[in-house]
């Protein structure tokens, strides 16, 4: 009975988060890409706030200091893991789900498509790491701004799409690793942005 209650609580919490998720075309138009099939993609973490911290640097410095105080070197290892997750987890999960939902249109997005006419820039603006301490949990969440630019002229922004409150958690509650929770948030983000592009552009 206890397990049923836990799963029900988790399900209802997930439904509430999903309803809060939102994607909007903030500016510009997607008309230019209707006939394109390959896109380059780049990632920008230069202006990210994390949890209650206004800047990612402040968050990282606090975590490093706290962890190193408990165990010398632990904070430095944590920082290395936090930063490496961008390429090892977030990027991989985002592109995997985005391409999964774009493949039906014959469209691909990859940072290896450097010769593509257009580039998407995924600017992460907010990360909520969340937590899972067995008896209670808070899902991760990411907010992003997806910019469409000309590859040859990245200063020319053709459109901007905002995607907020993308939730990240693992069904069953086995997301004790912060990187796993955030990774799932990027996967959800990739899925929903792909569906938005299919509906609005392709």
UniProtKB/TrEMBL annotation:
Record keyword Signal present: yes
Keywords, comma-separated and alphabetical: Signal
Source organism, top-level taxon: Bacteria
Signal peptide positions (record): 1-20
Annotated protein name in UniProt: DUF4468 domain-containing protein
Native species: Plebeiibacterium sediminum
């Amino acid at each position: 009975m206890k397990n049923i209650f836990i799963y029900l609580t988790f399900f209802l919490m997930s439904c509430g988060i999903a309803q809060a998720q939102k994607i909007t075309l903030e500016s510009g138009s997607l008309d230019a890409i209707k006939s394109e099939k390959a896109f380059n993609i780049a990632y920008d973490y230069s202006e990210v706030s994390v949890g209650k911290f206004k800047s990612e640097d402040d968050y990282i410095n606090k975590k490093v200091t706290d962890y190193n105080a408990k165990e010398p070197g632990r904070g430095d290892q944590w920082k290395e893991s936090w930063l490496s997750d961008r390429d090892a987890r977030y990027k991989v999960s985002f592109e995997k789900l985005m391409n999964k939902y774009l493949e039906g249109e014959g469209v691909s997005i990859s940072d290896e498509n450097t010769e593509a006419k257009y580039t998407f820039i995924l600017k992460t603006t907010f990360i909520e790491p969340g937590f899972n301490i067995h008896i209670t949990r808070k899902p991760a969440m990411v907010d992003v701004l997806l910019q469409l630019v000309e590859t040859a002229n990245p200063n020319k922004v053709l459109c901007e799409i905002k995607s907020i409150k993308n939730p990240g958690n693992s069904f069953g509650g086995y997301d004790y690793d912060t990187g796993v929770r955030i990774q799932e948030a990027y996967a959800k983000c990739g899925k929903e942005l792909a569906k938005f592009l299919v509906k609005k552009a392709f």
